[in-house]
Amino acid sequence: MDFLNRYILGDCEEVLRRFPDNSIDLIFTSPPYADQRQKAYGGVSPDKYVDWFLPKVEQFWRVLKPTGTFILNIKERVVDGERHTYVIDLILRMRERGWLWTEEFMWHKKNSYPGKWPNRFRDNWERLIQFNKQKKFKMNQEAVMVPVGDWAKDRLASLSETDKARDESRVGSGFGKNVSNWVGRDLVYPTNVLHMATECSNRNHSATFPVTLPDWFIKLFTDPGDVVLDPFVGSGTTALAAIQLGRHFVGIDINKEYIELARKRTASAQIRLPHIAEGRAAYSTSRPKNKGRLKNAR
Questions:
Q1: What is the third-level CATH fold of 6-145+189-267?
Q2: Which stretches of the chain drop beneath a pLDDT of 50?
Q3: Greatest Cα pair distance in the chain
Q4: Dihedral-angle region of residue 246 (phi above 0 means left; psi in -120 to 50 means alpha; beta otherwise)
Q5: In this predicted model, what pLDDT tens digit does every residue of 30-63 receive, in sequence order?
Q6: Quick one: how many helices (H) and strands (E) in the chain?
Q7: What stretches of the chain adopt beta strand conformation (E)?
Q8: CA-to-CA distance for 41 and 55, rounded, in angstroms?
């Protein structure tokens, strides 16, 4: 497991070929969106995006543990006045390859500034799509519980008879609720809509998300000591969140400037990191020379 807590420079598709099977607990990443990040990643066209991404997903499947989770932060691009279908196409193609499209979360960007286009408004949310290899996977729901909210003070103060039993939907949908279940509770389970501000500080990266975003998913889908992989690590936000939560990380990126930026950023968290080396993981000289090393990635 000498790849732990390392940044590796290279294409994740090639780098991950040298990783052992079933070695990662959570993959959390935001790959370059179609036709974006031209300088750093080449700017993949929407029509070719799925074919570009699927070989990488094959490696994600192999290294992810059966109980692990893959969270993909992505958003459709507008092409010729309409949303392109490459995200939907990718989901369908992944399902054909055995992935379970388990859930979809929405990141509501609380501090997104106003904007207007001739035929649409500014995007104020992004997808976070959850994929799994099997129906039974690790999930710590209690780790992300939220305060019940002020509404409970008045609403639960005087319960009617209806509130004390399951109140079935009047339209026969099968949905219902028992309001009395919230009595005495300080914390409740969250929804699948995450209200978080965007990253405001300049990280010298074109698409930095807030550390609270990977932090939330790391708490939900991993335990302390688990391994979190970001195959498009960028400025190191996912790695930083993993470190702060006591998890191991693996960060891969094809851009050397981003790797250096990520290394410096996490080093400031007083975490000892090795130097990077192109195409392979770098190792501490204190480690045994021939024990469990990650082979050259290229």
A1: Rossmann fold (3.40.50)
A2: 36-40, 161, 164-169, 173-174, 176, 202, 205-206, 275-298
A3: 71
A4: left
A5: 998 776 444 445 568 899 999 999 999 999 999 9
A6: 8, 16
A7: 6-9, 24-29, 64-74, 78-79, 82-83, 100-109, 116-117, 120-121, 125-132, 146-147, 167-168, 176-177, 187-188, 193-196, 227-230, 248-253
A8: 16
What share of residues in the chain are helix, strand, coil (percent, to 5)? 30, 25, 45
| pLDDT in the model for residue 257 | 94
- Write out the residue limits of the CATH 3.40.50.150 domain(s) in the chain: 6-145+189-267
Q: Residues 6 or more apart from 133 whose CB is under 8 A from it? A: 61, 64, 66, 68, 98, 99, 100
Non-local (6+) Cβ contacts of 78 within 8 A are: 84, 120
Please give the backbone phi and psi of residue 65, each rounded to the nearest 5 degrees, phi first: -65, 155
User: Contact at 8 Å (CB) between 239 and 209?
Assistant: no
